[in-house]
């Protein structure tokens, strides 16, 4: 059995990144992130749209590109996720973003 790469930590990193782009209040999300074990530096990185984990970094950037409707970036980031062996993240992240009503 393969490990599910779309973890609660990755989900919260994506949500923090999207909320930061929308300039929303993320106190509740940051609190949830701390409960999941993210450090202050990891939370700040997520708010900037990055991650210290290479696969999560691409997934966060993919989510931001999807949120922004940046098709060129999406194509590049999809290829990166596939090359990392993390293609299953594509539909997971897409459902998360579309489920939030943020996809454009």
Overall mean pLDDT stands at 92
Distance N to C terminus: 35 Å
Query: What best-fitting shape do the alpha-carbon axes yield?
Result: globular
User: How many strands, what sense, and barrel or not for the largest sheet?
Assistant: none
What is the CA-atom radius of gyration, in angstroms? 13 Å
Q: Please state roughly what percent of the residues sit in beta strands, choosing from under 5%, 5-15%, 15-25%, 25-35%, 35-45% or over 45%.
A: under 5%
- Total strand count, please? 0
Low-confidence stretches: none
How many structural domains in the coordinates?
1
**SS class:** mainly alpha
Q: How many H/I helices?
A: 6
List the secondary-structure elements in sequence, H or E. Answer: HHHHHH
Helix content: 55-70%
Overview of this structure, please?
The protein is built from six helices and no strands. It is mostly helical and 104 residues long. It has one domain (8-99). The longest helix is centred in the middle third of the chain and has 15 residues, at 54-68. It is globular and about 30 Å long. The protein starts with 7 loop residues before the first helix and ends in a 5-residue tail after the last helix. The mean pLDDT is 92.
